[in-house]
C-alpha cells in the first residue's frame, strides 16, 4: 500500500516538490495528491510580466495538465484546502472532500501585502501576483492613462515595466529613501533610479501614502508630506505575507510576524507536516525567492526517501534584468561595521555602471557585492563568494569592463563541490560526472542534470566547464555535422568537390546514414550551391523554408520580400515601384540595416506575382533569405562628399554585383567607406573597404552579430585590382574551410595562426592554392542567375507557391492589426475587434 | 477504432513534390502532407504547430532522429514525429496524424 502525501499549494515550489519526488521515488513508494486554489496548475511567476509581452498562460506553465496525470500526481485545481485535521491526519477542502494523508507538505506560498491605507479598497487598485491579477490590470489599463506602483522592490519594478508596456505613464512610489532597499546600497539605488527615470518611469522616494482619493474609483494618491499624485490606477507591490492561516488554525507554530516555523529538516511543530517555500519561516527568515524554495523542495523529497538532507538557510543573491537593465547583488552589500572589510567601487554615472565588491580586511575573501548596469561578472563573482575561493591580488580586475582584460574565473579553478546552477542545485562535480557518463553536448548535459534549465544564468559557465572537462578527458569535441554524417562540413566540401556528387541523396547514400535532418540538409545544400552554383530550388528539399520559398519566414508564417539594391543606390522610379507594390499587396515596409527596403506580410501564394512586378521593373532577388552575400553598404564617397577621397559608391555596387547570390557557410555582408570617417561602418562587416589617399585598405572578419567584432586590417593602400583579387581568394577560402553556420569572425579566431595565416594564404599564396581559389570564384560569378527570375519562369517550381495544393482558398489563419498605419501580425488570440476597442 | 473510414481525394500524386511538405485543406482543416520516397511512405499531420499556434508545419523540413522520421517546425525547429505526432522535444505536445495513402495515382486521406 502506497503512502499518501498531500501537497497544499501548487505554485512553483509546490510543483517543484512533486517533480523532484516523482523523479527520485523510483520504487513508487508514494502517492501524491495536490490541491491548487488557482484555476490552473503551477506557472512561472518569476517571468510573470512576460504574459504582457505575448506569452500565454500555457507558455508560463511549469508543466502541462497531462504531466500530472502521466506521473500519477492527483491534481485538484480550483480547490482550496480549508482545514487540517491533525489528529486524524486528514485535509478538508472547500469542495467538501476529506482526504487522509501520511505526510503533509505546506506549500501555500504568500500573498501580496496590501498596506491598510484609507481608500485602498477603491476600484482601480490591483496587486501583482497571479495571471488573473494581470488580466484585470490589462483590462483596466485600456481606459487608463497613468499608473502608480506602490513599492520599489524587485516585484514593484517588474510591475512598473509591465504598466509602461501597457502604454501607461508610470510612477513608482517607494516608502524607503532608495529603490530595492534590501539589495542595493545608496549609490547603487541612485544609479538605478537615474536609469529607470531615463526610460520614462518616474520614481518618488521617501513617500508614505496617506490616502487614496477618488469617488468609487482611484483618482489620486495623497502623501504624508501633503503632496499629491493624480493617477488612474494603482498596483500594490509592497512586499509579501506568508500564507500561514491554515497552519495557524491547525495549531502549528507560526512566527510572530507570520510564517510557518520550520527546523532545518523543514519540519513544522507537527512531525508529519513539512513547510516549504515562501510560507516557511526558518531562523526568523522568509525566503521570497524561488531558488531557496527549490532547495527546500529538494531537501524534503530526499528526506521522505530516507536520504540525509537539510536546509540551512540560503543565499539571497539575485540577478535580474529590470526595465532593461542588469541588476545583481549577493552577500553583504556593505562592509559590516568594525570588520575592517573594504569596499571596492566603480561608480560611472556616464556609462551608467555601478559595481561594488565587499572584501575582507586581508583582501582574500569576497563578502558580497552589487552590480548595476552590467552584471556579466555575476556568475564568476558568485562562485568566488559561495565557495570561499581566494581572490586575485587585485580584486578590482574582477569588475573592470571586459575589454580591459578582467581576470575571469577559469573553469579549472572552480572546486568540484561548487554549485553552478542554483535553481536546480547542480554542482560542478555533478556536471563532470554527467560528462564522464557520456553527455557529449550542452543539450545533453542540460537534459541529464537539469542545470541551466531554470533562469539560465549559469549556461555560459556550464559551457566553459563542459569544454574544459572534455579537453581534460582527451575528447576532441566532435565537429561531425550531425547523427547522419560522420564528417565535418569541410570534409564534406572536399568529398563533394572531389567526387563530383551533385545531389544530397547520392551523398547520404554513399557517405551518410538514414534520412538526414534540418542540420545536415541545409549545410549540404549550401556546399552544393557554393560548388556547382545551380539555382537553389533545384535542391529545394535541402533548404529551410526561407530558401524553398526564396523569402524569409516571419513569426506568423508570412514572408518578407527584399529586392537587391546594390550599394544602397536607387532611382526615384525604382523606389516608386517598391512603394506601389507594397501598397497594392498591403505589405509592411521598413528599411533594413543594409541600405535596402524590406516588405513584410506576404503569403506564399502572393510571392510570385509580387516578384514578377519587381522583376519587370528591373529588380532582382536580394538573397536576403539565403546564407549568401547580402549587401555591400556604402557612403556617397568622393562623388558627392566633400571629405571623400575615393568613389566608394561605385566600388560597393561593383563588389555587390560581383559576389551576389554566392552561397556561403553563413550570411556575408560588406561595406565600403569613402574616407577614414567610416560612415559605412565597414569595419563591422565580413569584409570592409576603406578609402585612403593612395588606394584602399582592406579589413576582414568583422561582424555586428551577437558578439560584435571589429574587422582586422588585412592589407593597406592596395589598388582596385589587387583588392578584388584578395577578396575573391579570402571569400573562397572561407567557403571551403569554415564550419556550418560559422561566421567569418569565429572562423578566423579558430584558424591556426589567425590573421597572420590568412594573410599568408591570401597574399603570399603559402598553400599554393590561390589560382584554384580564383578560378572557383570566377566560376561562381560566371554562373550567377537571379533565383526569382528562374523560379517564376518555371511552372514546375511555381506549383508550390500556393497556400493549399488541392484548392485555391487563401490561408485564412493569417490576421493583421494596424500599428502606426501599417499592418502588423496579430498576436496569438488577438482578434481585430479587440484591437479596435483598445484604440 | 475507425470502422467506417471516409477517404477524401487530394488529387494526383504529381502535385506533391518529393521530399517536401505540401499543405492541403480538407473541410476547414489545414493538413501537412509529406512524402519520403526513400522510405516509400506518405504522412499527413495537422498543419498547426500547437506550441507557437501557427499554421506552418507543412513548410518544415523532414528528417530523422535515431531513425524516427519527423518534421521540424520552420520557426523554431520543434520536432514532431510523423508517425505518432509526438513532439520529440517536449512530449507534452502531440499533433494529430491522419491516415493517408496512394491509390491509382491519386493521394487519398481519411480526415
UniProtKB/TrEMBL annotation, chain A:
GO terms for molecular function: 2 iron, 2 sulfur cluster binding; 4 iron, 4 sulfur cluster binding; flavin adenine dinucleotide binding; heme binding; metal ion binding; NADP binding; nitrite reductase (NADH) activity. Residues 317-378 form the NADH-rubredoxin oxidoreductase C-terminal domain. Residues 420-467 form the BFD-like [2Fe-2S]-binding domain. [4Fe-4S] cluster binds at residues 635, 641, 675, 679. Pfam families: Fer2_BFD (PF04324), NIR_SIR (PF01077), NIR_SIR_ferr (PF03460), Pyr_redox_2 (PF07992), Rubredoxin_C (PF18267). Its EC number is 1.7.1.15. Binds 1 siroheme per subunit. Its cofactor is [2Fe-2S] cluster; FAD; siroheme; [4Fe-4S] cluster. It is an enzyme of class 1 (oxidoreductase). SUPFAM superfamilies: FAD/NAD(P)-binding domain, Nitrite and sulphite reductase 4Fe-4S domain-like, Nitrite/Sulfite reductase N-terminal domain-like. Residues 626-751 form the Nitrite/sulphite reductase 4Fe-4S domain. Signal peptide: none annotated. Keywords: 2Fe-2S, 4Fe-4S, FAD, Flavoprotein, Heme, Iron, Iron-sulfur, Metal-binding, Nitrate assimilation, Oxidoreductase. Pathway: Nitrogen metabolism; nitrate reduction (assimilation). Homodimer which associates with NirD. Belongs to the nitrite and sulfite reductase 4Fe-4S domain family. This is Nitrite reductase large subunit.
TrEMBL record, chain B:
GO terms for molecular function: 2 iron, 2 sulfur cluster binding; metal ion binding; nitrite reductase [NAD(P)H] activity. InterPro entries: NasD-like, Rieske-like_NirD, Rieske_2Fe-2S, Rieske_2Fe-2S_sf. PROSITE patterns: NIRD, RIESKE. Residues 7-109 form the Rieske domain. The keyword Metal-binding applies. Signal peptide: none annotated. GO terms for biological process: nitrate assimilation. Keywords: 2Fe-2S, Heme, Iron, Iron-sulfur, Metal-binding, Nitrate assimilation, Oxidoreductase. This is Nitrite reductase small subunit NirD. It comes from Oceaniferula flava.
